Amino acid sequence: MHTPEQLLQLYDTTFSKNNFNTSPTNLYKPVEHIMSMKGKRLRPLLVMLSCEMFGGDVTKSLNAAFAMEVFHNFTLVHDDIMDKAETRRGMPTVHKVFGLNAAILAGDVMLAYAYKYLTASEPAKVPALMELFNTTAIQIFEGQQMDVDFEERDDVTEEEYLKMIEYKTSVLMACCTQTGAILAGADITAQKKIYDFGLYLGLSFQVRDDLLDAFGDGKKVGKKIGGDILLNKKTFLLLRTMRLCNDAQRAQLNELLREKDEHKKISGIQHLMQITGGYEQTKNEADRLFQQSISALESVGVPAASRSRLYDLACKINNRDY
Fold first, then answer.
1. Which residues of 11-95 form beta strands (DSSP E)?
2. What SS3 state is found at 87?
3. CB of 76 within 8 A of CB of 184?
4. Sign of the four-CA dihedral 52, 196, 151, 208
5. Which of 72, 104, 246, 250 is the most buried (most CB within 10 A)?
């Protein structure tokens, strides 16, 4: 069995060359821009580690692993447009460099390439992979719309927020872990358990990401801290803070949500998040979701040694500061 570092080296070696067309240049330069950032590559790792955990041949999971990374980056290109984000992973976003039209079209072609590489997997496994992937893609798009809708609503609940991030973020991680299981020939029961592992890991990942967006180190996170605050995004952190505010704090928070001075808005809301206990309780929620993820992993019927690398990766994700 390979270590995560060995798997990433195999992945990078396989996809080190240009895996997209080069012409027309104005279509593929933006694709090259986002893909060259690399990022954490958690999703390819989840595919490969899951495949090996169930005794599969990891080389047969490489195309699917690449498909998941391409698809994930496609969503980031379009998300950045909708969020008006200027940086991603410490670099200018695609639309800032190449313009809106080029970014939209680059995302479109990346979606097509995701299907291209996914269907290059073992033919007998492709129908199951496609059914899972299509369901996941639809849920992600639904989750993105929910996220946009929440910006205009003042009555979003924590339960609604968790459903939104389940669709927008978690289902892709779950898709990755189940994809590896499918490619390894795992039975349906095992597939469901490893899917749940990825799902709860994704939920924990996103709740913790909300904390990093508000309180992380901008250089490590690779984007402007407080971006969600400026957009009045209904994160779990903000919703929990709203719930914990007393009347005076709630009035102050509502005033800050309308504040035009960026520094005053960010620092003021950060302060309320801390003094109300919103920050601490959000951290506890991320920890709770992480423990559900680990419980799902431990329920998979494989030896503990086989699960250890996914467990270690999950812990690394949970303890990250970027």
1. 87-88, 91-92
2. strand
3. no
4. negative
5. 72
Cα 158 to the center of its chain, rounded Å? 19
Contact 170, 142 (CB under 8 A): no
| Contact indicator for 302, 185 with CB cutoff of 8 Å | no
* The residue to which tokens 């997209």 are assigned: 20
Residue-wise pLDDT for 196-239, tens only, equals: 999 999 999 999 999 999 998 877 776 678 989 998 889 999 99
**Short-list 203, 115, 122, CA closest to 165:** 203
End-to-end CA distance of the chain: give it in Å, rounded.
Answer: 28
pTM: 0.92
Q: Could you tell me the residue ranges of all domains in the chain?
A: 4-318
- A 10 A CB-CB count for 46 gives 30
pLDDT by residue (tens digit) across 269-286? Answer: 999 999 999 999 999 999
What is the topology classification, in CATH, of domain 4-318?
Farnesyl Diphosphate Synthase (1.10.600)
* Cβ neighbours around 271 below 10 Å, total: 13
